[in-house]
């Protein structure tokens, strides 16, 4: 009788343990579902640290909308900051402060086993294209004048038909920096000035563009013209682009952006993308990206920017 009672007790204990484990598993699954966030990957170059270190610190600790950011610092950027840290200029001071911040932040990241919020880390050795020639797969190149005008007219019509105030807000905030398809260079203008141009000024800008294109006799850059100094960071950027493409859903925004204040790097980066859809890589200046991630409806604003760049 005692043995039977013991056996029953053991069975009851075993049953209770199974129930507890099952409840814990369900609770953990629900917790995972609640804490799951879409991750937006942003590749930052050296100008981001030299021009906007406080903003980088903010991005690494904020969760825009219902999502999180993964800030990737290319290895090349670490080397450049080391080169810039010697001296007494403001740029040298920024480079030294950036180095200290990165050392501290990367140490904190190593201590954490799992990361559920926005984070910052360096590029891993294997996070690049195996060969630079592989980048040609993603080469789109420059657009012809007629293609530029067609896309601008299409974008203008879409904006006129839209009654979404947020969409209009995003369009106005990004009209000077959406892509190389816009006639006026987005980074040559003063970012602190939002003065709207008149119709005469718009015609003048177009005439300048036409005269410049005529003077160049239609010559355009090719893949082989990509400057050597930009190939490392572009290789890192395209590596992430290729990985996202493997699992990307049709017509879904690519959660990847290059953040830079280097207008030349931005120009070359925007010559790459998805040749099938003609969607170019998304590039933002430091201030533009900071404005975007600060919006309460970040995901919606990002999607609009991605579709209309």
TrEMBL record:
Top-rank lineage group of the source organism: Eukaryota
Biased composition (Low complexity): 168-179
Domain PIN: 43-155
Region (Disordered) residue spans: 158-220
Biased amino acid composition, Acidic residues: 158-167, 193-216
Pfam families: PIN_4 (PF13638)
InterPro entries per the UniProt record, alphabetical: PIN_dom
Protein name listed in UniProt: PIN domain-containing protein
The species this protein was found in: Rhizopus delemar (strain RA 99-880 / ATCC MYA-4621 / FGSC 9543 / NRRL 43880) (Mucormycosis agent)
């Amino acid at each position: 009788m005692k043995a039977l009672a013991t056996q029953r007790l053991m069975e009851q204990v075993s049953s209770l343990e199974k129930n507890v484990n099952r409840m814990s598993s369900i609770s953990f699954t629900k917790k995972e579902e609640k804490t799951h966030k879409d991750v937006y990957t942003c590749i930052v170059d050296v100008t981001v640290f030299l021009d906007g270190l406080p903003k980088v610190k903010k991005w690494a600790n904020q969760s825009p909308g219902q999502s999180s950011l993964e800030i990737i610092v290319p290895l090349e950027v670490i080397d450049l900051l080391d080169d810039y840290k010697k001296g007494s200029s403001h740029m040298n001071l920024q480079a030294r402060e950036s180095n200290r911040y990165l050392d501290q932040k990367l140490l904190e990241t190593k201590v954490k086993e799992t990361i559920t919020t926005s984070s910052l880390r360096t590029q891993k050795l294997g996070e690049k294209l195996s060969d630079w020639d592989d980048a040609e797969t993603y080469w789109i190149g420059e657009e012809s004048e007629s293609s530029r005008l067609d896309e601008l007219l299409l974008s203008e019509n879409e904006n006129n038909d839209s009654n979404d105030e947020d969409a209009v807000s995003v369009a106005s905030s990004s009209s000077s920096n959406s892509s190389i398809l816009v006639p006026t260079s987005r980074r040559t203008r003063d970012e602190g000035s939002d003065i709207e141009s008149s119709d005469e000024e718009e015609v003048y800008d177009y005439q300048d563009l036409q005269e410049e294109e005529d003077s160049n006799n239609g010559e355009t850059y090719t893949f082989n013209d990509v400057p050597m100094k930009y190939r490392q960071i572009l290789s890192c950027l395209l590596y992430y682009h290729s990985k996202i493409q493997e699992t990307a859903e049709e017509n879904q925004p690519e959660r990847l952006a290059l953040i830079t204040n280097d207008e030349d790097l931005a120009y070359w980066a925007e010559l790459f993308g998805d040749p099938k859809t003609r969607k170019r890589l998304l590039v933002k200046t430091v201030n533009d990206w900071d404005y975007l991630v600060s919006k309460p409806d970040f995901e919606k604003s990002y999607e609009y920017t991605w579709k209309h760049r």
